[in-house]
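Today's session is about reading a structure prediction critically. Students often jump straight to the picture, but the first step is always the sequence itself: look for stretches that repeat, for charged clusters, for runs of hydrophobic residues. Only then move on to the predicted structure, which in these notes is written as discrete structure tokens rather than atom positions. Here is the chain we will use throughout the hour.
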Amino acid sequence: MFWESVIIALDGLKANKMRSFLTMLGIIIGVGAVIAMVSIGMGVREKVETSIASLGSNLLIVMPGATSPSGARLAAGSTTTLTNDDARAIARSIPEAVAIAPSVGRQYQIVYGNQNWVTSIQGTTPEFLTVRDFAVETGSFFTPKDVDTRARVVVLGKTTADNLFGEISPIGQTVRINKAPFRVVGILGAKGQSAGGMDQDDMAVIPLTTAQERLLGITYLNSISIQAASGDVIDQVQEEITALLRTRHRLAPGVADDFTVRNLASVMATAQETTGTITLLLGNIAAISLLVGGIGIMNIMLVSVTERTREIGIRKALGATYNNILLQFLIEAVVIGVTGGLIGIGLGVASAYAISWLAGWNTVISAFSMMLAFGFSVVIGLFFGLYPARKAALLDPIDALRYE
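Below is the predicted structure for this chain, in token form.
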């Protein structure tokens, strides 16, 4: 009887092809919209996570920051409270801080021949590669000896090298930074944009002492980047750094820190929570169209019950039971939901690819979101088909046969 009911239900849908398709359209659009919106949300989440992770793993960044007499905290990095001795103290006193890269920086114009490029000049130490998860693509990075001797050597980011040299090999060439000559010893591998949208490859790296003494004429630091041994101890390392620097800077209890310690693990967690909320919101908005599609199914099934009242009466007179009639109309509703869900999956995947190609947005198509949207389409077909099916099954055969 089950398969007979399936065949009868399919015949009923085939008899009204256009009506059946229009009924499915709400489910198709709903499923497609859910998949497309969730893929956009997950794409945003992946891009943000990748950008933050590209800054370095288990990373802490110490920035100078002071409190003005009015009580307002100045922007981090705007004051001069961090020194080279602070960086050395962290390396000496905190074993879980496995790599420390103090740095200073400023925008300068780099000149090679008749080409010039304005970029960020970063003065740091060889630990920069480990802390910031960079790799040298060509040549080599400068050495601790270069830092000790204030050598005029420079390692270029990929963007800077491409704009200055084009197809020419930069290794061994001499460039001028603030009119001073620097020898190019290496090119960094490409990393792309940061979470803030800045090009991480648009920079040049020189020894810390060279930047402080030969280029900038300063003794303080703009930041100290610290890599913790693991994600499990990063909060502990942050607390130890805070306590150490407060002691070194002779800050009395109750006095605000004159520095800021940024924990990128916390930034990552916040970003994941935010983008997860955005994805959920987009999915819920798209799911409203699934609900509208379900109401369309109920409407059409009620019309179908009314049109086939005499057919139902004849089937009941010939011995069809309550369950037979209920099953027939439920199957019709479920078939609409299943067919609409399958077509909707195709529409959603195609829409996600189209959005990625046309708008340049990062989209991530999830098998879970496809299964979830399809499952909802089936459940909605079943739920909204239940009332019309029950109404048909409860018809009195005498009244049904007399129906005109």
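Discussion point for the tutorial: The chain has two domains: 2-51+270-402, 82-248.
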